[in-house]
Specification:
mainly beta; Immunoglobulin-like; ten-stranded antiparallel beta sheet; five-stranded antiparallel beta sheet
């Protein structure tokens, strides 16, 4: 389904002591330790050493595959790239704080990255970043972490990021969807957390690149570390909608849509409205169910309502879970489209008409039973006028009949009154 499932999470606070490394203060940039309470239909990878459910093995491996994670099951592949010869302490490896990356860069242009690729796009992907800071007293580095996410079509997805501005600052990358967190002050306990979430579009791939920023002392950079914390997501994206469009075909409306990916999908319910408040089902199309290829769909509304018609799709899974598409608006191009009643539905007090050619002598307002209702006419301009009924119109359906000046005889349009 094209839905966003809310992820419920709790952050487990930990006190992290600043250790010594080779007789010097060991300064870590830690990626947040993030713990989630996961409901059915969610996935989770524990990158810490607190459990052996999803271990990173062996220590120092540059490629890791996590099979059959979550419900529905997803395979996640993690790839470490870049200047991997700069990795130290048999990293990457699990630590109580997460996946540890310890690097000693030769210059500021070097760095390493970890890319997580999902076999299916996932929604609400989240992970944390702990202790992004800058150290100029005992060491010489500025942590710089770049986050870039992509959907199933390799289109960038913008993350939402929360962070502590006392220790880090956020900037945009060259691409508009890329975000960069850079250290600002020293975080002695490496306890400051930042959170990264990708709400909305399903994420197929996310890359976390780690290097040193430019805001440091002259000279070589010193060892710096980060900890990638646990990844969690709400669900896979069962149906990935490419587009949903509508087009008038004479007095009918053709709806077309396409999907790029379907999983566990049952059917599409087509719904229509004239006021954007109440939608009514007008048809159902059986979906492909499970597909990795582009699938095209079409539906013809044989009897659109007068005025603007609003359409949406309700995509229903086999487990009856559902979600709605965006709403599109289409005006049917009928023979009477030169004559427009607005607003429609109306309050019944001031009924506005817009037209190309109209014979006023043939203008009639009548009830569903054919009873004519007297009215006054107020001319607005050469192509517009207002009807003011002399008696109150109750909620219901009425008809406006007029003689077409082009010689097509008497034409009738529906007027809906809603109070």
């Amino acid at each position: 389904m094209f839905r966003l499932l809310r992820i419920y999470s709790v952050i487990k606070q930990e006190s992290i002591m600043h250790n010594r490394f080779h007789g010097m203060r060991r300064l870590f940039t830690l990626l947040t330790i993030f713990y989630s309470t996961l409901a059915f239909g969610q996935g989770y990878i524990d990158l810490s050493s607190n459990t052996d459910v999803t271990p990173w093995t062996p220590d120092g491996a540059l490629l890791q595959t996590f099979n059959n994670i979550g419900t529905p099951q997803v395979t996640v592949t993690a790839t470490v790239q870049g200047n991997t010869n700069r990795l130290r302490n048999q990293t990457p490896r699990n630590d109580s704080r997460g996946l540890w990356l310890n690097i000693a860069l030769g210059n500021r242009t070097e760095g390493v990255s970890v890319t997580f690729t999902f076999s299916e796009p996932v929604t609400n992907l989240s992970f944390g970043i702990l202790g992004i800071d800058r150290e100029l007293s005992f060491s010489n580095y500025q942590d710089r972490v770049l986050i870039a996410g992509y959907d199933d079509n390799n289109v960038g997805v913008t993350p939402a990021i929360s962070y502590n501005p006392n220790f880090a600052f956020l900037t945009n990358g060259v691409e508009p969807f890329v975000r960069i967190l850079s250290g600002f002050n020293s975080d002695p306990l490496d306890s400051t957390r930042s959170m990264v979430t990708f709400p909305g579009t399903g994420v197929k791939k996310v890359t976390i690149a780690f290097n040193s920023g430019d805001n440091i002392r002259n000279g070589a950079t010193t060892a710096q570390s980060i900890f990638l914390t646990d990844l969690s997501w709400a669900s896979i994206v069962p149906v990935e909608l490419i587009y949903f469009r509508g087009k008038a075909e004479n007095d009918r409306v053709r709806l077309n849509w396409a999907t790029a990916n379907e999983s566990n999908s049952d059917y599409f319910q087509v719904e229509r409205s004239t006021d954007l408040k109440e939608f009514t089902s007008i048809g159902r199309i059986t979906s492909a169910g499970d597909s990795k290829q582009r699938v095209e769909y079409s539906f013809l509304d044989e009897a659109p309502l007068p005025g603007v018609n609003y359409y949406r799709l309700k995509q229903v899974d086999k487990d009856r879970a559902s979600e709605y598409s965006k709403i599109i608006a289409v005006s049917p191009q009928t023979a009477s489209s030169r004559f427009v009643i607005y607003p429609n539905p109306s309050d019944g007090q001031n009924i506005k008409l817009q037209f190309d050619n109209l014979e006023l002598d043939g203008l009639r307002l009548s009830t569903l039973l054919g009873q004519e209702i007297p009215f006054e006419i107020q001319a607005n301009n050469t192509n517009s006028l207002t009807i003011k009924p002399l008696s109150e119109l109750q909620t219901g359906l009425y008809f406006i009949t007029y003689a077409d000046a082009m010689g097509r005889g008497m034409l009738t349009q529906k007027l809906w009154v809603n109070k």
